[in-house]
Fold these 2 entries.
Entry 1:
Amino acid sequence: MAFLCLLCLSAQCQMAKPAPATDPVFEGLNYSYEVRKMTLPDGTHIAYVDEGKGPETIIFIHGLGSYLPAWDKNIAELRKHYRCIALDLPGYGKSGKEGIAPGMESYANTVFGLMDALKLKQAVLAGHSMGGQIAITAALQEPKRVKKLILAAPAGFETFTEQQKQLFKATVTPESIQKTTPEQAAANIKVNFHKMPADAQFMVDDRLKMATSEQFGKYSAAVAGSVAAMVDEPVYEQLPQVQVPTLILFGEQDALIPNRYLNPGLTTKAVAESGHSRIPNSQLVLVPEAGHFLQFEQPAAFNKAVRNFLD
């Protein structure tokens, strides 16, 4: 009966909110795997990929200003052993951009909505950067639905004062994002890496393409709203409540965590160890020769650590 009600609710929402018109720019981005589309019961339009099968299902959650291709090198290997699902968060990539209210809890609810639609009672959540904070939020909201956590350079371990939070929100606005020059946009992506690999150039190319879209303003609003949500919905104090087995990975040369301007006295190792010490059932792996985007820059090390953790 509950399932029938869910189907009815989903149908009603789809009738109330028809699928958005195809945007040629965002839809034209080249994804490595077959893209599937779904409308969740709340009317959110989601794009995702679903590859492989195995004893575990991993749901990959991308970071700020990113999209599901961020996990390409991980899905390529891990789908041989597990079911790998990666989604574009609302406002990002090929997912809908209408009526988006960015938030750590709302994004966690989107993940659960996708799980419901795919009839998944439980899954392993893998989150990068902002996606890590979303995964932590999900584990705090619905601990029985999150089997394990894989946190790649997660946001949420670093803390900020109220003044720092306000500075963050004032600096990153939809207007500032839209005014970003091509050169700065490219630099913003390159700083995610210790040594940016040549096969990551598509991220720069795609970001420049996005700026030509009629929906770029809505994408910019989603990114700015996500920044505000990260600082307004902190998880640091709640980390001891995370009871599921957790794998934490950081690149040793991460240039984004900690924030070099707001917390110049901190090191990546100190932030990583602080979060690790607060999550009871966690293990920490520091990946050498890797920056913030460690799972793309050092995929072999990342994938090996994930396999050891899950197996």
Entry 2:
Amino acid sequence: MTAVRTLTFNTTAGSIFISTVVVIVTAIVSYLAWRRSGYQRSFGFLEVLRVATVTVVAILFNQPEWVEEFRPEERPTIAVLWDKSTSMETRDVLNPSEPSSAKTRAEAIQPVTDAAAWSSVDPRLDVVIEPIAVPQAGHGTDLHTPLTEVGDRVKNLLGVVLISDGDWNEGKPPVEAASRLRLKGIPVYTMPVGSPTRLPDVELTSVDLPTFGIAGKAVRVPFTIDSSLPREYITTVTLRTSDGETLTKDVKVAAMGRTSDAISWKPAAEGDFTVTVEVPRHSSETIFENNTKSAPIAIRREKLKVLVVESYPRWEYRYLRNALSRDPGVEVSCLLFHPGLSKAGGGTKDYIKQFPAGIEELSKYDVVFLGDVGTDDGQLTEEQCRLLKGLVEQQASGLVFMPGWQGRQFSLLETALGDLMPVLMDEAQVGGWGSRTAGRFELTELGRRSLLTKLADTQEENAQVWEDLPGFQWYASVVRAKAGSEVLAVHGEMSNEHGRLPLLATRTYGAGKVLFMGTDGAWRWRKGVEDKYHYRFWGQVVRWMAYQRNMAKGESMRLFYTPDQPQMRQTLALHAHVMEKSGEPLSKGEVTARITAPSGKSHTVRLTSEGEEWGLFRGQFVPTEPGQHLVTLNSVKTNATLDASFYVQGAALESLGKPARPEVLEEIARVTKGRMVKLTEVNEVIRSLSNLPMPPASIRRMALWSHPVSAGIVVVMLGAFWICRKVVGLI
């Protein structure tokens, strides 16, 4: 940086005239006074001092300034920023001469990102070409940061050229960076690329697979198709597994909207599979890269442990026990508190003699059914109810309330289990309500979408099945559902001031799930169809409730998380159940989960203990990338490890097929007093940049006329003048 220093005066004709007259008059008066003294040397020195003082004041009256001008040695720079984000791979740039073919946005901007395109810029200017929004796992396009940094990083910046589709989805609004550039006098010339309207496209937006499935049991694979085509059409969606199995389903794709459906897949063998769903290319669509999605799933052979507790062996209990005992994936244990028996238990291998003693025995059960039992007649104790609550809250087990006409479950409302009940009961009608005319279930909106109530493959067929199911002749005295509960089915006819009576309701409590079945007539569903609907319903209930608890487990550790289908940037609650080597719950210790994202980035989450009784440790993690995440759970005290994984649903921030946003670039150009031009108008941009005024020099001014040193000099000269007058005897 070079500096030029000059002395300048801020004069006017009046100031020059006045100061000149004052100095001349002072000189004449001083000369006459010296002559009158007979030209004495001392008087001559005094008059010279007088003239010098007045001259200095006259000079300061004309406002002298010391000016330093600093000019940078670097040449002015033009910054060309071009977008390299994933959305630039969208193929929507049409060639007017060849409408049938389209280029990607990245291909369209390639000519203007080459240094040769800017070779005609004024030789006095430097050109810097840099990519922005380089793809990074878990991140999107940020236009604010590069615009802010280029103004601070590039020295002697004259102007900026921004080449982008304008699609930003991360960081602050780019107009804020544009405002900062305007304050610095740096214009931004923008070049938009891409179609501002979505081209004809059929996109497979999501495939929501569960974390694991059971061999021999159907797995529902939901998917969503987003279409921008102007009319609906029928296509065949294909599901392929990594072992070569292929399934197809005809789907009617809605016009200009989203279509959700599912394919049912029944895996025969266990193992780790990759499921790929593909939507065939439509003849009118222009983007083919987003028609396929894949997701992993683990298929296991598991025995879910179920405990059924009942008093009288009513018909509902008998058929429920048969349904569970004949399910190859369920290991059922039954406990009868029959008043006519001398002691609790039963006569077959499915029965146990007493309620599980302690946490170690109870914690092995994935789901517990409570029939018409309570705390009286030597049945459940207060401590056992507390343990059941902890089993649901701390270890993600499921609990099913199945009240009966004896009303014994009302006594459970006074125990720890009262908090888990999804509905409010009418204590004035303990025995419930019976009728000779059969009542019927009516599915709610949630019930029509729920997996629990899915007794047919399509929603239309499922609704018809529920309408045709045999009715019930007894139902519990329910007032209303509690806040936070989800009502899946209500009484088809009976209602109160709160609306229809809820008969099938669920809620989440702690880490587990709770279900309330308000009738004892589900066994009647076997009429004419045997076990078709009855077995399917209770099998779905057991697997839905035990799903989270069995996500990943080892000999002494168990890992589960909520929600069970995590989404990007959604807080994931991690729960780890850790046991000592002796089999007791681990009360204290250090438990960590090392999570590796699909990009290879690792995060370590420390899980904190939630009490000494259940050996539960909890932590939180927020995934920022879609796809398979690997988890290694480690307990320092027991030296045990558990390898697991979870799949994050959703698409990345950057995706193909979204329309361009030229309005964003237009606003940036307008705020900075630049222009938005077409990609073919590079020469126009170069001409505008070359005509920009060079950056002004940095100037520093020192006002001598008001400087304290100048005032001090005048004061000293005046003091010396009066001292000399006293010396020569004039005072």
